[in-house]
Amino acid sequence: MQLANPNRLKHPRWWSLLVIGACLGYAIATVAVLPLWSVIPITGLWLGLGWLLRWGKPATRRPPRRVWPWSLVPLCLWGVYVYLAESFGIVEIGAIFFHLQAGIAEHGGSSRILAAVLYTLAMLALLAAYTWLVRRDHRWRLIDRLLALVLIASNPLFYSMGQRSAAIVTDDGAWLDRRYVTPTIQQAPESPPNLLLLYLESMERTYADRQRFGDAYAFLDALGRRGHVFEGIRQLENTGWTMAGMIASQCGTPLMPAGLLHDNQFEPLGRVVPGIRCLGDLLDEQGYRLSFLGGASTEFAGKGIFYEDHGFDRVMGRASLEPRLAEPDYVNDWGLFDDSVYEFTASEIRRLEAEDAGPWGVVNLSLTAHAPRGYPARACRKRQGEFDGEDILYSVECSAWLAFDLIDRLDNEGLLENTLVVIASDHLTMRVSAWEQLVAGERDNTFMLLGQGIEAGQRTHREAATIDLFPTILEAMGYTIERHRAGLGVSLLSAQPTLVEQHGLTDLAARMHEETALQQRLWEGLIPEGRQQGSSQAASRQILDALGNTADEANSGKD
Question: Topology with regard to the membrane (predicted)?
C-alpha cells in the first residue's frame, strides 16, 4: 500500500488535473480580485471533482485518440487576458491598439519580462495537460468544441473587439461627435497667468481615504487646502493610460486609437490626434512659451510627437535630461527619478521667468507612483526610511511629498506669482499592492487648482471626467470659452451639466463603442482618401441631427 500511493500520484492524470486546477484557480483569483491563497481551495475543489467524476480515467473506457483540442487557441487568448489583468487591473483594448501603433520603444516595463516568461511556461504546461486530458477521456472530447465557444464568448478581449467591429456598421456612429465643441477662446484676460500643470502618475484621489490608506495622500490634502479641490473626477473608457489621460485633460476627448484609419499599419504614428485643437494649441496662439518635462522617454507611446505637434516649444524627456544629471547612474527602468526631474522643472521655470517674454506654461509628468510598485526617489528614502520594494503606499506618499515640496520651493522663490498651478493624476492606478482596497469602492482622479485667482479651501463634488479638466483650466486662467465647453468637456467652474452627470459612465461607454465620427475627427489627416468621403457624409449627418438635438444641447447655452 505504501508503494501504491506514490505510483498513483506519478500518473499523468493527476499531474494534468493539478496543472489545470492551479491555472484555473489563478485565473479566477486574478480576474475576480481574490486573495492569492484562494488558488489553493479552488485547485483542491477541481481535484476533488476530477476524482469524483474520474476525469482522465472514465469508468467506460474508449481508446485514446491523437486529436488536437479546439480549445487550445481560446485558452491561449484567455492566458493573454489574465496576464494583462494581473499586470494592469483594468484591461482596455484601446490601450493595446494605441501602443502598438504609437510605438513602445524605450518603455520601462522590463520588470514584467520575467512575469511574461513564467506566464508562457505556465500556458505551455496548461496546453499540454489539457491536450492529454482530451485525448485520454472521450467525455472531454465531446465537450471540447462547446468549451471553445464558451471560452471565446466569455473572454473580455473578444467582447471589446466585437463592440469595435459593431461600430464599423453602426447606423449612426456620431453621437459623441455631435456633442464635440471646437475649443475656441472668445476673450483673453488682460494679464494672462502662467500655467504649471503637474501630472502625478497614477495618483488617484481615492488614496485620500485615510481609513483605507492612512496618511499616504496627506501632503496632497495639505496642498488642496490652499486651493480648490474637485471630487468625483471619474475615468471614462479610453482615458485610462498616460497618453490617453493627458489627451483627455488637454484636448477634452477620450483617445480613440487610430486603428485601421491609420494609413500605414506597419509604421508608428507620425502624428498624434492631429485633427483637434488642444490646450497647447490655444496657449501657443496666445503667445505662451510652452515646455514639457518628464523622466521617461518622449518616444514611448508618441508622447513627444503629441507635444511637439500641439504647440510646445521644448519637449524634454530621458534623452535630453539624463546627460544633465550630476550622477549619471541615478536612474530607474523608466528614466529619471522625480526629485531630479523636479529640479530640472524648477530650472526651466527660472529660465522662462528670466526671459520675461510673456506668459509661460510648463507641463510635468511624474513617475514615482507608477504601477506596480512605484519608483520612490532617494530624497523620499532618506525621509521615509527603507522601501520594501512592493508597498505602493510608500510610493504614493513619496509622490505627494515631492509635489508638495516642489510647490513650496517655487512659491518661496517667488516663481509662482501670477501662476495657476494645476495638480492632476493622469489616470487611475493600474494593479498595485493595494488593489483590493482600491476597487472596494468608487474611485476618482486627483484634480486641484492653486494660485492665481483661486480661493483657498474650496471643495466641489461633481460627477465629471478628465475630459472636463480642459475647459476648467481655461476658465480658471481667466479665458472666456464658448458655452463653458471645449471638446466634450464642460467647465466645472460653471453650472453646465457634464456628460457624466447627464448620461452616466455606463451609457457613455456604450456610446463610445459605437462611435466612428469622433475617431475620424481625432485622426483627420491620417485617414486614407477612401474613408475621407465617409467622414464627410458623417459630418453632413451631424449637421442634420444637430438640428433636432435637445437635452444636453439645449442646456449648453445656459449658465
Answer: Multi-pass membrane protein
pLDDT in tens, 235-263: 999 999 999 999 999 999 999 887 654 44
CB atoms under 10 Å from CB of 193, counted, come to 22
Domain 179-547 CATH superfamily: Alkaline Phosphatase, subunit A (3.40.720.10)
**Closest alpha carbon to 331 in 276, 283, 377, 264:** 377
Q: pLDDT digits over 153-162, tens only? A: 888 776 555 4
In this structure, the dihedral spanned by the alpha carbons of residues 237, 119, 48 and 13, taken in order and rounded to 10 degrees, is 140
C-alpha cell at 112: 514584467
In angstroms, rounded to a whole number, what is the distance separating the alpha carbons of residues 403 and 417? 18
- Residue 391, judged by CB atoms within 10 A of its CB (0-12, 13-18, 19+), counts as middle
Which secondary structure element, helix H or strand E, spans residue 558, and what is its range?
none
* DSSP H helical ranges for 32-71: 39-52
Among 373, 421, 414, 444, smallest CA distance to 115 is for: 373
Domain ranges of the chain: 4-168, 179-547
d(C-alpha 492, C-alpha 471), whole Å: 8
Give the pairing type, strands 289-294 and 314-316. parallel
**Among residues of the chain, what percentage have pLDDT more than 70?**
82
Q: Residue 210 pLDDT more than 60?
A: yes
CA atoms within 13 A on the CB side of 173: 21
CA pair distance 361, 388, nearest whole angstrom: 37
Residue 201 has pLDDT above 80, yes or no: yes
Identify whether the C-beta of residue 483 lies closer than 8 Å to the C-beta of residue 492: no
Phi, psi of 196 (to 5 degrees): -120, 110
Q: What is the pLDDT of residues 510-536, one digit of tens each?
A: 898 888 899 999 988 665 544 444 444
Q: Are 369 and 201 in contact (CB under 8 A)?
A: yes
Give the residue from 394, 281, 279, 416 showing the smallest Cα distance to 345.
Answer: 416
Q: What is the Cα–Cα distance from 548 to 226, expressed in whole angstroms?
A: 45
Cβ-count burial 310-345 (b if 16+ within 10 Å, e if not): bbbebbbbbeebbeeeeeeeebbebbbbbbbbbbbb
